[in-house]
Design goal:
Elements: H1 2-25, H2 29-53, H3 64-91, H4 100-109, H5 118-127, H6 134-162, H7 166-184, H8 195-220, H9 231-240, H10 249-268, H11 278-284, H12 297-314, H13 327-336, H14 342-352, H15 358-395
């Protein structure tokens, strides 16, 4: 629980710092922002490499994973759809309901609710003593699959944002190539996997993706550049490693510190909300979401509660499957998928790159914070349901 509260604390701390940073550094803000964003991408790559390392499948049983993948995909899709509809029909005036631009922006921004935080969830369930349970083993598969589905769906969403260009065809080919390599070479390479090596791989991955972007920008300009998000390359790199379980205090501390730094940097990347003339900002905004007037704090908090409810209701999809298991176990599995964290925050950071903002952005950030605070409660709930199901099984009921 302490770790989850610290995730929320660092995200909020970064959000507070973001409000004062431009005034503090003055003309050097652009350089500070570049350094901050670079560090953020390195941290995100570090996290996604570790997520990929946890992705283990018996390829001879690939058909048995088909149902799991579609359940995970739906478990990621329903919260996303619910929140996207809410952002469209509640946050936006009715004049935008038929706007293709408004739909594109909200479909991208609301995608933050789709991924389950695999790292946070696995750590807390293992600490609760559930590592040998069916719920833990099944949630491992579903959480990784819905993270993967989130990463893959970001590609068509980005195509929607920038339009269909030949450069996007190159990106699709690169993505397909990465997925083929990830599947065929899964767990094939015996590579160093201590925190220093993972950090080096993260820096290298970010360096390669940034080099592709800068070279294409030099030749074709900003609008026609090839920008490959670090999420998928880092995930695939983790997949192809022959997984080594390095369970030391130093490894745990470094991984935790990187996650804390990532959440802080996500907060720092947020636009300035306090002391801003929102009327003037809305008039200058280039996106529909960014042009919306800011709401009062009580109204924002109300929207945060509603969005959190909608996103978690959507995550209950697994409850209707795996009928051979007890209802308590299926409910525990669904509640375990409520956890949000680094990947969702990474989606928000990507959305910022398209100048999405306004009240929807603030609600999205605070929804992640709210769900992080509730994660301890979710895990306790999962533990009680799982243990009660086990006790019924032992009693032969």
């Amino acid at each position: 629980m302490k770790k989850i509260l610290l995730f929320s604390f660092f995200l909020m701390l970064g959000l507070v710092v973001s409000q004062f940073l431009p005034a503090m550094v003055g003309e050097g803000y652009s350089s500070v922002k570049t350094i901050s964003n670079t560090l953020l991408y390195v941290c995100l790559a570090f996290i996604m490499i570790n997520v990929g390392r946890e992705f283990e499948m018996d390829k001879s049983r690939w058909r048995s994973y088909t149902e799991d993948y579609f359940i995970a995909m739906a478990t990621a899709a329903f919260p996303w759809i619910f929140v996207a509809l809410y952002y469209m029909f509640v946050l936006l005036p009715d004049i935008y309901w038929n706007s293709g631009e408004a739909w594109k922006e909200n479909l991208l921004l609301s995608r933050f609710v789709a991924p389950t935080s695999a790292g946070i969830l696995f750590t807390m369930l293992a600490a609760a003593g559930l590592k040998s349970s069916w719920v833990y083993k099944k949630v491992q598969v579903l959480a990784i699959f819905d993270d993967l589905d989130t990463i893959l769906l970001m590609i068509p969403l980005q195509i929607m944002m920038v339009g269909l260009r030949w450069q996007l065809g190159v990106i699709i080919l690169i993505v397909m190539g990465l997925l083929i390599i990830g599947w065929r070479k899964m767990g094939s390479y015996d590579m160093r996997q201590d925190w220093k090596a993972i950090l080096f791989y993260a820096v290298l991955t970010c360096g390669i993706t940034q080099a592709v972007y800068l070279v294409s920008k030099y030749f074709y300009g900003e609008d026609a550049s090839i920008h490959i998000e670090v999420l998928l390359p880092a995930f695939v790199l983790g997949m192809v490693m022959r997984h080594k379980h390095i369970d030391t205090k130093v490894e745990h501390n470094v991984a935790t510190a990187v996650s804390f730094l990532f959440m802080f940097l996500v907060g720092v990347s947020m636009p300035v909300f306090f002391g801003v003339d929102f009327a003037a900002q809305s008039a200058e905004a280039t996106t529909i979401t960014g042009a919306q007037p800011m709401m009062s704090w009580p109204v924002i908090i109300l929207h945060v509660v509603i969005v959190s409810f909608l996103s978690n209701i959507g995550k209950l999809f697994p409850l209707f499957f795996y009928r051979e298991r007890r209802k308590r176990e299926r409910l525990a599995l669904s509640i375990g998928m409520f956890t949000r964290g680094e990947v969702g925050a990474g989606i928000i950071f990507i959305a910022l790159g398209y100048n999405l903002g306004g009240p929807a952005l603030m609600i999205s950030v605070l929804t992640i914070v709210f769900n992080l605070i509730l994660t301890g409660i979710f895990v306790v709930w999962v533990e009680k349901l799982t243990r009660s199901a086990y006790e019924l099984e032992q009693a032969g009921k």
